[in-house]
Amino acid sequence: MTDHATVLPSSGGRTKFLVGGIVLLAAVAYLIVSNLLNQQEYFITVNDLVARSEELTMSERTIRVSGAVIGESISFDGQTLSFDIAHVPASAAEITDEGGLAEVLHQAVNDPAAQRIQVVLYNEPMPELLQHEAQAIVTGELGADGVFYADELLLKCPTRYDEAVPQQAELP
Fold it and tell me: Total domain count for the chain?
């Protein structure tokens, strides 16, 4: 009779595989989270931007701000577009309570006490929808000089909402 030694598989190989898998998963998770944090945009109101200007100037975060365009401040020289926006509420419920978007935009540009910021865009064409009381949504960074340097501009024309205001005002 021959003596056959039973060879049990070593658990060391399985452990190395598990440790390697965990390290790989942790590295992938870290890369995903750090990438999301670096590309994160903060959506704030003009009031928030003004109140947190020192903090937001020091950060290199991309910020998205919404406001009502003040028509008399629009300036375009072919290369540089600048205009001011006034604070509008961020909450849809608050906008509805105040009579709808057209009414909120109208009130914002006619309120001399409303917070305002200057927005500047470089090397962009003059948008057709950029007009008095339009809603502007700008994405960019706040400069140390208090000017918001935008990389992207989205506009909502106020005339789209004019017909909805009387209906909203009639609601109890």
Answer: 2
